[in-house]
Amino acid sequence: MNNFSWKDRIKLEVTAFLAVNLVRLWFGTVRVEILNRPVYEKYFRDEHSGNVVAGSWHRHAIFLFYFFRTLGPRGIMISRSRDGELTARIAEHLGYTPVRGSSSKGGIQALSAMVDYLKDGREKRLCGTAVDGPRGPARKMKKGMAVLAMQSGSWFVPMACSGTRVMTFKRAWDKTIIPKPFSKVVIDFGEPVKIPEDATDEQFARICRDLEAELNRLTDKVDRKCGYTGVPED
Predict the structure, then answer these.
(1) In the chain, what are the domain boundaries?
(2) What is the 3-state secondary structure (H, E, C) of 153-221?
(3) Which CATH topology does 6-226 take?
(4) Which residue in 55, 122, 220, 233 has the most C-beta neighbors within 10 A?
């Protein structure tokens, strides 16, 4: 924040406040159906199930960011860019602890900080981010979140969501989707995976391939259930 003037800081805070309240009004009208609820209840809501690293595709990130706002301590990795500063302030308003960095800016430091965040707390902690971000390619898993789960001893839980009526940002590299007001979102969770800290490079690569396949399976499943074809609505 040393590069921001006081005017910039005020503008960021006001924008974040307005954005958070708009999101609450908008997404508050959306109905949610959870598939594989036992995984959600045990690994996200049960205080005794251990720390969780939740991974999804970037396409789903905006609504899932809102959906998890009511859970316990949550960390989230956010870019160090100027745009990331606004996202970090919005995250704080929604109860997240931002850890700054990305695969392109400060990724190693952010990963180390997130490992510390997960391991240092006495209480159960969660963290998550898009595993194909920040620039893609879409639906291709990068290894950062899997490394985080392995180094912190956390469960890795794959997840996906889709909606019955959504807006699709067709020019975005990930085809971001946002549910329309008074629509329905379906969220599904895959089975949690514990990645051995002593996994060989070959074993780790295989686990990442399996997680990528599972994320794509979940995405296709919720899309079918919602009747979403990826074609933007008029």
Answers:
(1) 6-226
(2) CCEEEEEEEEECCEEECCCCCCCCEEECCCCEEEEEECCCEECCCCCCHHHHHHHHHHHHHHHHHHHHH
(3) Glycerol-3-phosphate (1)-acyltransferase (3.40.1130)
(4) 55
- Residues in Cβ contact with 45 at an 8 Å cutoff, skipping those fewer than 6 apart: 71
Cα 104 from chain centre: 17
Q: How many CB atoms lie within 10 A of CB 82?
A: 11
DSSP lists the bridge partners of residue 159 as 189
Kindly report whether the global pTM for this prediction surpasses the value 0.85: yes
Rounded Cα gap, residues 234 and 219, in angstroms: 22
What is the rounded CA–CA span in Å between residue 231 and residue 170? Answer: 8
Q: In which element (H, E) is residue 19 found?
A: helix 6-27
- Tokens at residue 130, please? 């898009």
Task: Identify the residue whose tokens are 């049960």.
Answer: 46
Of the candidates 82, 28, 58, 38, the one whose C-alpha atom is nearest the C-alpha of residue 161 is 58
Give the strand pairing for 52-56 and 155-163: parallel
Please check whether residue 214 is in contact with residue 158, taking contact to mean a CB–CB distance below 8 angstroms: yes
Tens of pLDDT, residues 27-76: 999 999 999 999 999 999 998 889 999 999 999 999 999 999 999 999 99
